[in-house]
Amino acid sequence: MERNLKCILLDDEIPSLRFLKMLCEQISGLEVVKAFNDPASLLKEYRKLSFDFCILDIEMPEFNGFDLAKELKDFPIVFSTAYKQYASDAFDINAVDYMRKPLSLQRLQQAIMKVEQLISKRSETVSFAQFNTNKGKTVLYFEQINYVQIAEVDSRDKTVYLADGSFILLKNISFDKLMEILPEQDFIRINKKEIIATKIVKFFSADEITSNLSDDQDLPLLFNLGESYKKMFFEKFS
Fold this sequence. Notes:
There is one protein chain. Helix content is 28%, strand content 33%. It is of the alpha/beta class. The longest helix has 21 residues, at 105-125.
């Protein structure tokens, strides 16, 4: 595996979940961020977690795996199930793989390789996105972005500060939507009002991030690390 991958797991049957987690832990470069046995808990918590893809069971009470996949549509999905009849539906929603239980380490490794190839392909090909601004539409290259803040006049808008010292006002876009668009490996939300590019982080403590940027007085530009975002931040930089 060329890069470390982070995943979350979901299976409402505890023995199956434990076995899946055990297999994952045997694959070098793969980290299980969290294992869920309740779909509702996953839906409540996943936005606070830093992960690359999901391995989901399908038949569960309250929500099934396809319901979860719709919510997690921006993440690669691998299904793990005892039933063969859902395979067609799984690939109709572009699942990366469909594994039949009982799982084996070799079969899981094959699925992880597919995920790795997909993520590598995405990182190579997606380097920009189109946004609505106060001056019309613009194409913004991700490498240009240093950090993003809530706009002063209207909190629905976001101000993007660029590497050349300029800024762009994005109209009516949420931080959640921005985090779906921006490459996960290159950007992180650090508090309720800011997203930063990982490239600008120079030092950090429990509450504060010192960037490699300078303010108007030529002092290092500092950012507050919010309590709710510390775990994700420290995991990314561990």
